[in-house]
Amino acid sequence: MQSVYLNRNPTAKAILDLVHSFENNSLCYDHLAFRTFGVNGYGIDSLAQFFLDYGYTQRDDGMNGPLPRIFISELLVDQMSPRTQGIIRKYTESSGNGKKYAALASSLGHLTWDKPLYSEFQQLARESEYAAWTLVNGHALNHVTISAHRLKTYLRDIKKLNQFLEESGFRLNSEGGVLKVSPDGLLLQSSTVADSISFQFSDGITESVPCSYIEFAERLVLPQHENLPHTEIKEFHRRDGFEVASADKIFESTSKEQVSRAGA
Ligand code: OOG
Ligand code: NI
Fold first, then answer.
1. Closest alpha carbon to 2 in 52, 68, 58, 99
2. At what angle do helices 118-127 and 82-94 cross, to 10 degrees?
3. CATH number of the domain that 190 lies in?
4. What's the predicted TM-score (pTM) here?
5. pLDDT of residue 264
6. Looking at residue 61, what is its pLDDT?
7. Nearest-5° angle of CA 220, CA 221, CA 226?
8. Quick check: 176 pLDDT over 70?
């Protein structure tokens, strides 16, 4: 999954290479994120099953392991217009038993359904950029997130990391401000704007579409553990979970507005 992601997203690859070498070749992921269509068995479960089979467990908080969290979201397809629902149902239905192979398709960089018409992509994009993204990117990794607090250099402070990236010429998603802070002040997040990729639609039209981005997260130590010596602090002493209001802004990393601003 990661190699598909690195091949398609030069900005994410350049940032990973830069931070990795700056950090003397060590780096951890906080989470890996995917998008799905919540219909016909193509929702969260289609991708979650693979990770559950490998020993991941479902949890809202309470991290206990060295592996990155997996963040899977789904579009509430029933809440879309009949026209948009028709397009999403057409492609998920055309895929046969493709829902069983979401993780495999993600690793190969394939869709489990046919390529859409350009007009269908545009119809979805007008109503939901998430829907349009998922139609052409399928189960591809939507982003990986670098765990800032586990970096070894001064870049472990996400504000310094953001500054370092901006000074290196990378543009960050500015929706609602570059730094997204949870109401408790303990989860700090930022992200780049998605790279674009040229996509050939089934009617022969080739257009540039948003692909994936990279995120950064700093989880601060929970107040009840703030007196622990620095060397004893483990991941589970830190703020866990995600934040809806911040996620709402991070989702915009693949929106037309942010993507065209990055190319401006
Ligand atoms: C996910 C956006 C939310 C987070 O960490 O809260 C997110 C997406 O763009 O699919 O990544
Ligand atoms: Ni994320």
1. 68
2. 130
3. 3.10.180.50
4. 0.96
5. 47
6. 67
7. 140
8. yes
* Antiparallel, parallel or unpaired: β 29-37 and 69-75: parallel
- Express each pLDDT in 41-87 by its tens digit: 999 999 999 999 999 999 876 666 778 999 999 999 999 999 999 99
Helices (H), the chain: 2-8, 10-22, 44-53, 82-94, 102-108, 118-127, 129-137, 158-167, 244-250, 256-263
- Which ligand is nearest the CA of 140, by number? 1
Atom 8 of ligand 1 has which residue's CA nearest to it? 251
pLDDT surpassing 60 at residue 263: no
Give CA 51 to chain center in angstroms.
Answer: 16
Test site for ligand 1: of 36, 37, 71, 134, most ligand atoms within 8 A of the Cβ:
71
CA of 247 relative to ligand 1 center, distance in Å = 5
Q: Which structural domain range is residue 102 located in? A: 2-263
Residues in the chain: 264
* Euclidean distance between CA atoms 84 and 260, whole angstroms: 24
Q: What is the signed CA dihedral for 241, 246, 252, 253, rounded to 10 degrees? A: -60
98 CA distance to ligand 2 middle (Å): 25
Phi, psi of 125 (to 5 degrees): -60, -35
What residues form DSSP beta bridges with 73? 35
Q: How many Å lie between the centroid of ligand 1 and the Cα of residue 205?
A: 30
Q: Whose CA is nearest to atom 4 of ligand 1?
A: 247
In DSSP notation, 16-41 reads: HHHHHHHTTS---EEEEEEEEE-STT
Which atom of ligand 1 has the smallest separation from the CA of 213? 9
Q: Work out how many domains the chain is built from and give that number.
A: 1
Range among 59-63, 119-123, 259-263 rated most confident: 119-123
